[in-house]
Amino acid sequence: MKVLVINCGSSSIKYQLFEMKDESVLANGLVERIGTDSAILTHRVTGRDEWVETAEILDHSEGLNKVLSLLTDPQKGVIQSVEEVAAVGHRVVHGGESFSESVIIDDEVIREIRRNVDLAPLHNPPNLLGIEAARQHLPHASHVAVFDTAFHQTMPDYAFMYPLPRVLYQKYKIRRYGFHGTSHKYVTLRAAEVLGRPLEELKLISCHIGNGASLAAVQYGKSVDTTMGMTPLEGLMMGTRCGSIDPAIVPFVMAKEELTLAEVNSMMNKHSGLLGVSGLSGDMREITEAMFEGNDHARLALDMYTYRLRKAIGAYAAAMDGVDAIIFTAGVGENASLVRERVCKGLTFLGVELDREKNAERSKQERIISTENSRVAVLVIPTDEELMIARETRNLVEQ
Fold it and tell me: What local confidence, expressed as pLDDT, does residue 120 receive?
C-alpha cells in the first residue's frame, strides 16, 4: 500500500509518499510561497538528485496538482499513476474534544474540524484546504485525519481543566489540549521497543524540544499531562515563544506600551523565548555559539531554557509518582548535547546518570545515553511524525 502524507500550512504543502510494505520513503518534498507567481517546489526521490522548480502556484489545489504531476512524471516520479496512492494521511493540528483518535474523513469530520477553527485559527484552515484539494485530486483514495491533539485526550480532568470560571469551559471549551501528540506517541512507542519493555508498564517523559517545545507525561502508554495548553504558547520557554508567564504581565505591558491584542500576541509568540532574552536568535545553535564567545545574554537565555525544562521534568516525575525513562527528540532534543547534559545534571535526585561520551556522539540514530547504573534511562529518539501519520492511516484503512 502506498500512503501519501500531507501537512499543509497557510502557504505551503509538505509531503511524503510511503511504501507501507517496508515503510520506505519513495519521495518527499515541499511547496512554498503558495499564492504567488514565484512559488518554490522542492522534490526529492530516494537515490536521485533533488529537483527544485519555481512556478506560479496560486492555491493549494494547484500546488497539490503539481506534486502529483511530479510523483507520476516518467523521469522525476516514482509511480505510474495517482491511482497507486491508496490513502492520504492529513496532519490536522486541532481536533478539540471532538477527536480522541485518527479518523477516516467524511463530510461530518470536515464540519467538526471547521467547528474547531477558533481553537487553531492559523492552522486548521490550511489543513482543511489540503483536505479539500486532496479529495478533489485523489477521489479514489481513503483520506485520514491525524490530529496533533488526539494523543492527549487521555488526560484526566484535573490535568486538562484550568482554574477559571467553569462557564468558560462550557461556552468556549477553554481547557488544556496539548500538541505534538503525533511525535510524543511515536517516540514513546519507539522508546519501549529500544528498552525491550512493554509500553503498558512504563512511565515516560517525552521531551519534544525544537523551535516549539513541549513535554508529555506518558504513563502506561497514555498521556496524562502535557506542557502546552489551549494553545502552543503555554509551557516551556521556546525559540521565539515565552511559554508560561504570570498572566497579569499581559494587561500590564499592554497598558504601558499601548499594545493591541494582536501586537502583544505577536510579542509572546514571535519575539520572546530564546530570541527575546538573548536579543540574538531563537536558534539554539547560535545561542550556544554566542555563549561560548562570552555573550552574557546568550548565557542567560540558555540557563533559563534548561532550568525551566529541568523543572518541568521534575514536575512530571512527581505527577506520575516516578519515571522509568526520559526521551529527547526534535531539533534541539536530538542535536543539542549541551542542553541534554545540563538538564540531566540537575536530575541526579531521580537517579539519572548520563554517559557523557554517548551523549556527545553526533549520531542520527536512536540510542540510550545514560549509564548502565542509571536508575532512569535517558534516550535520544529521532522523531518521525510523517511515518506515524502513515501508520495511523494504514491501520484505519485496513480495518
Answer: 81
326 is in an annotated binding site: no
- Ligand-binding site membership of 331 (annotated): yes
Q: Is 284 labelled a binding residue?
A: yes
**What's the rounded Cα separation, in Å, for the pair 123 and 100?**
18
- The rounded distance, in Å, linking the Cα atoms of 189 and 148 is 16
Tell me if 324 is assigned to a ligand binding site. Answer: no
Phi, psi at 46, each rounded to 5°: -55, 125
160 to 85, 143, 172, 245: CA distances (angstroms):
38, 30, 14, 18
52 is in an annotated binding site: no
pLDDT of the residue at 224: 98
pTM here is 0.93
* 332 labelled binding-site residue: yes
From 322, 319, 354, 321, select the one nearest 339 (Cα to Cα).
Answer: 354
Q: 10-residue block means of pLDDT along the chain (399 residues)?
A: 93 95 95 93 92 92 93 93 96 92 95 88 88 94 96 97 97 95 97 97 97 96 97 95 97 97 94 97 96 98 98 98 97 97 96 96 94 97 96 93
- Is 208 a known ligand-binding residue? yes
pLDDT in the model for residue 209: 97
> What residues are labeled active site?
148
Q: In this predicted structure, what is the pLDDT of residue 78?
A: 94
3-state secondary structure the chain: CEEEEEEEECCEEEEEEEECCCCEEEEEEEEECCCEEEEEEEEEECCCCCEEEEEEECCHHHHHHHHHHHHCCCCCCCCCCHHHEEEEEEEECCCCCCCCCCEECCHHHHHHHHHCHHHCCCCHHHHHHHHHHHHHHCCCCEEEEEECCHHHHHCCHHHHCCCCCHHHHHHHCCCCCCCCHHHHHHHHHHHHHHHCCCHHHCEEEEEEECCCEEEEEEECCEEEEECCCCCCCCCCCCCCCCCCCCCCHHHHHHHHHCCCHHHHHHHHHHCCHHHHHHCCCCCHHHHHHHHHCCCHHHHHHHHHHHHHHHHHHHHHHHHCCCCCEEEEEHHHHHHCHHHHHHHHHCCHHHCECECHHHHHCCCCCCEECECCCCCEEEEECCCCHHHHHHHHHHHHHCC
